[in-house]
Design goal:
This protein is an alpha+beta fold and 657 residues long. Strand 14 (301-312) and strand 15 form a beta hairpin. Helix 13 packs across helix 14 and helix 17 crosses helix 18 (510-519).
Amino acid sequence: MEKIDRMKKLVYILNKASKVYYQENNEIMSNFDYDKLYDELVELEKITGVTMSDSPTIKVGYTLLSSLPKEKHKTKMLSLDKTKEVMALKDWIKDKEGILSWKLDGLTIVLTYNNGELVKAVTRGNGEIGEVITNNAKVFKNIPLNISYKKELVIRGEAVIKYSDFKTINDSIIDKDKYKNPRNLCSGTVRQLNNEITAKRNVNFFAFSLVEANDIDFKDSKINQFKWLESLGFDTVEISIVNKNNLEDSIKTFEEKIIDNDFGSDGLVLTYNSISYSNSLGQTSKFPRHSIAFKWSDELKETKLINIEWSASRTGAINPIAVFEPIELEGTTVKRASLHNVSILEKLELIEGDTIEVYKANMIIPQVAKNLSKVEQDDSNDSMRKISLPHKCPVCGGDVEIKQVNDVKVLYCLNVDCQAKKIKAFTHFVGRDAMNIEGLSESTIQKFIDKGFIKTFADIYRIEKHREDIVLMEGFGEKSYINLINSIEKSKKVLLPNFIYSLGIINVGLSNAKLLCKYFDYDFDKIISASEEEFIEIEGYGAIIARSIEEYFSNEDNIQNIKELLEFIAFEEVELSNNNTLEGKTFVITGSLEVYSNRKELKEYIESLGGKVTGSVTSKTNYLINNNVESSSSKNKKAKELGVPIINEEDFQKLLF
C-alpha cells in the first residue's frame, strides 16, 4: 500500500507541475526535480504493475464513437432491499459481523480486467443489460488502467462527480444551462460518445464489491477483499466494521459526515463480512439476501396546498413555488417550497387545495414529496388533472415560453424589459458582496421602481431628488431615509472586484471577479477593452466565462450605465503585490479567531497572497485553520481522516515566512 500511495502522490505532483508549466507559463519545480520524480513513478509502475488512468507516463488518446453498444451482465444486478429503521438493521445483522459503507449517489459501473489491463466497463443499466462505456472509464480520474493481478478481475463500483467538481463545472456555464445535480451530470458524462468530454469532468470511481477473482484466498472476509483492491490501486467506498452492539453509533458517525462530504450519498449499505455466509443466503426474486440498504428517515408532514406562486429571476426563468398551510419541520416553521421547474410541477400534478407531503431534503431544503390528492384520484381512475401554467409573465405581463433545458421544462419571460429582471438585478447590485447598500430591500427597490425613482443603477446615487416622496412612503420616515443616504454615500468607495460582481455579469461571481482584477492589475480600463482570448488566459476561466465577460463589455448600453456610475463611484486603491506565498494552496477556516478580526478578513488576506479559501475540507485542502486543533468538530474529523494538517493562527503566520 505504501508504494500505491506514493504513486498517487507522484501523479498528483507531476500533473500539477505540468499544468502550471504549460497552461500558466510558470514553474513550481525544476526540470531536474520533475525528471527525478517522473523516473521514480516509472519505476514504481514497473514494480507494482499498476498504472493509474491520470498518470503522466501514459499518453491519453481520445475516442469518438457513433453509439454505445449494449451488453448483458453475466449475473443479474439486483437492487437492495431497504429500511429506514435502525432496529430493523440490528435484527438483520443478528450475531454476525458486518460492513457498513456509503450508498453513493452516482452510476453503478462494472469493470473487467484481463492480463492486468482494463478491458471492459459496463453500466448497470436495467440490471440485466448495460451500456459498454470502456473508452469513458479509461479517462476516469482515479482508476488504474493496469494492475499487477493478471487473471480475470470483475468489480462493481460507483462513478461519481464530486460536489466541488460539479460546482466548478456549473460556475463555468450560463445560468439557464446549469446542470441540476452531480448524479444527472455523471450519468450523462459516462455515456458520452466523445471521451474527451468525460475526461474534463473528473469522474471518480469507488469500488464497493468484488465479483470475480477466483484464485485469491480472502480468508472468508470481504474486509480483506477491500484491502486487496486498495493494494491494486483502486479507491474503495469508506467502510466501518460493525456488529449489532456498535451499529447504531456507526450510523450516527456516518450521519455526522454528510454535511462535509464532497460526494452525494442517498444512504448506507450493510453487508455481511463473511463471504461464504453471504453466498449461502441466495436471493429473492427482487433482492440479494447478503446486503441491505439503510436510508435516513425524512420527517414528513401533511399539509394543504394554498396556491402555486411563480417567481421570476434576473435570467428570465419563472419558477413555480408551492405555498401551503404552515407546518413544523426539523424544528422550524415551513410554508413554502420551490418546485424548481415546470417538469416537476407536471409530475406532481398539483392544483390548489391538494393535500401534499412535505419534507426537508438533507434536513435543510423544503421539498414536496408527494401529492396525496393525486394518488387518491389515480386510485379512483378519474380523468387527468388540469395543471395551470401562466400564459403571461406574472410580473410584467409579457409573453412566456417553455424551453427545454438539459431535458427539463423551464418557463421563461421573453420581455427583455421585464420588471422582475430589473428588481433582481437591482437587488443583486446593492447586495453585501456587491455595492453593500443597506436599507434597499427587494420590496423597497420594487416600490422605487414602481414610482419611477430608479431606472438605472446610477439613479440610486441620484435618489436625493425624491427625498420628499420617500420620507412619506409607508415603512419609511426621516430616520430611514437618512440611514439609506449614509449607506449610499459609504458605497461610493468600493473595491473593483465587488463593483464588477455588482454588475450581474452572467457566470461572474465574486471569486471570478477577483481573479479577473488580479490578472489585469486592477486596471478597469484594461478589463473593459480586453478580448475573449485574453480573458480565457485567466486561470480557472473557460471559454463560456470569457465570452460572457466580453459580450457584457461589448454592449454599448452596459458601457453607458457604467460611465454614469463612475460619475459617483471611486475604486479603492489596491496595493499590488508580487507576493504569491500561498499560490496553489487551499485553506478552510473554522472556529473563532484571535489574530484576525473575522473569517472574512483572513480569507481576503489568504487570497491576496495567491491562496484559495473553500467552505469544506476535501482531499484538495492543504490546511484547515482552527485555533482549537484538538476540537472534535466535523471539519477536524474530516481533516484527520484525509491527512490534512490542522493549524492555528500562529502556525498560519509561520507559513508566510
